[in-house]
Amino acid sequence: MPPPEDESFPDTPPEEEACLRIMFDYQQGRITLDEAAPRLQAAFRALPGPINLTVSPAIRRLFAEVARLDGRPMPLVGPDPDRHKDGGRFLVHHLAEQAWRAVSKHPRANQPLRIEFHFAAATESTARSILAWLQSHGQERIRLESPVEADADDWMVWASTPAIQFSRDDIDRWAAMVRDAPIGSDASFMGWGV
Known about the structure:
The protein is α+β, with helices and mostly antiparallel strands. Helices cover 42% and strands 13% of the residues. It has helices at residues 14-27, 33-46, 60-70, 89-92, 95-104, 124-136, 147-150, 168-179; strands spanning 116-121, 140-145, 155-160, 187-193. Helix 5 packs antiparallel against helix 8.
């Protein structure tokens, strides 16, 4: 969601910014659903092309109301039941190679770096299993956010590696630890960054 109104969006086209501001104001309770939906409908119509948005639980009702106003079928209002179908395996498939490339080409490659990464879990018990797994494997800055805190459909588990100057073996061990995390059928590896 966009920042408060006094901050700018330097790289956002004005038509997209208008949509983001309406969603942000609705999410913050500054405008009601009845006020926000027609405004967002008009803002969507003013877009020169499609906009790529993640529809969080906090704004789903707004999107459903815009669809109703447009005479379209109501979009799915709850979480996608297949969201953990592959567990994020497509992200893990070449994780070691991609992470090695990222740290070896990083501007501070000759200094200690951290890899930040996260998982999403449909249940608290799975999220806590992932958290315990990360702790037992020496990861740091581990935190758990409930779906309400994260404005998401899932429990979010955030972590980072210790700050080290990575070798290829370090990257391979980290990628294997991510791949082997206890995600079961109701969680996914969601992403990473250096």
